[in-house]
Amino acid sequence: MSQTFPLSRRSELGYSVDEVEKFLADARLAYEAQASAGAGAGAGAGAAVTSSAAIDSRSIRSTSFDLQKGGYSTLHVDAALERLEEAFAARERATGKRDLGDAEWYDLNRDRAREILARLEREPGHRFRRAGALSGGYDRRQVDAFCDRLVAYFRNGAPLPVETVRGALFTPKLGGYNETQVDLVLDAVVDVMVAVRP
Predict the structure, then answer these.
(1) Domain-wise residue ranges, the chain
(2) Could you report the per-residue pLDDT of 143-167, keeping only the tens digit for each?
(3) Facing residues of 15 across strands?
(4) 3-state SS string over 68-83?
(5) What distance in Å separates the CA atoms of residue 56 and residue 62, rounded to the nearest whole number?
(6) Is this model's pTM higher than 0.70 or not?
(7) Tens digits of pLDDT across the chain (198 residues)
(8) Three-state SS across the chain?
(9) Is there a contact between 116 and 59 (Cβ–Cβ < 8 Å)?
(10) Which of these, 144, 151, 149, lies nearest to 176 by C-alpha position?
């Protein structure tokens, strides 16, 4: 049987082969359905999108798979997911510009960037809600340092690859920043970064 990705060793954990294959099949259908809808014609094309509408660049970024011994290599699958996310994001960007026009599309994303900056420029130590004293959260100093990099990117155009934001990791710490809130803001940052690419 042919495999889409290399397998990890039998004794090592990889992603569930069945889950990865199902997700890729669903993503392929979604991408093709969106292409059909963009190309043409009437209500029928719109209806084709409905069944796969849940898959977009953001949902791809948050996708996770169960682990199994001898499963697909996580490194190869993660790299493929990044490429898939980029493909969906490029199409979403093209659709947004077509529907709104370039100027309105950039205005919309400039407004989103301003909302994000309002959060990122808060006083260090107070940029996000804190987890409980006995609950795990993200190390506040590490998150604040990364927020400073994001502010430099938005304010001054400092170089910051979108892959760095996607892959940002912080040390767990009791009483740190609420992980869900930080993750949501980083997701919003990625959305803006990919939306305004040339």
Answers:
(1) 13-100, 102-195
(2) 999 999 999 999 999 999 999 999 9
(3) 67, 72
(4) EECCECHHHHHHHHHH
(5) 10
(6) yes
(7) 568 899 999 999 999 999 999 999 999 998 888 776 665 544 333 333 334 448 888 889 889 999 999 999 999 999 999 999 989 989 888 988 999 998 999 899 999 999 999 999 999 999 999 987 777 899 999 999 999 999 999 999 999 999 999 999 999 998 899 999 999 999 999 999 998 887
(8) CCCCCCECCCCCEEECHHHHHHHHHHHHHHHHHHHHHHHCCHHHHHHHHHCCCCCCHHHHHCCCCCEEECCECHHHHHHHHHHHHHHHHHHHHHHHHHHHCHHHHHHHHHHHHHHHHHHHCCCCCCCCCECCCCCEEECHHHHHHHHHHHHHHHHHCCCCCHHHHHCCCCCEEECCECHHHHHHHHHHHHHHHHHCCC
(9) no
(10) 144
C-beta of residue 34 within 8 angstroms of C-beta of residue 91 = yes
Backbone angles phi, psi at 140, to 5 degrees: -65, -40
10 Å CB burial of residue 41 (0-12, 13-18, 19+) is exposed
Q: Which two tokens stand for residue 129?
A: 């809600």
Is the distance from CB of 51 to CB of 33 less than 8 angstroms? yes
Tokens 């990122």 belong to 120
- What the block records as the tokens of 83 is 């490429």
